[in-house]
Amino acid sequence: MEERLKRLEEIVRSLEAADLDMEGALTLFEEGVEHVRGA
Question: Which of 11, 23, 29, 35 has its CA 20 to 30 A from that of 5?
Answer without folding.
Answer: 23
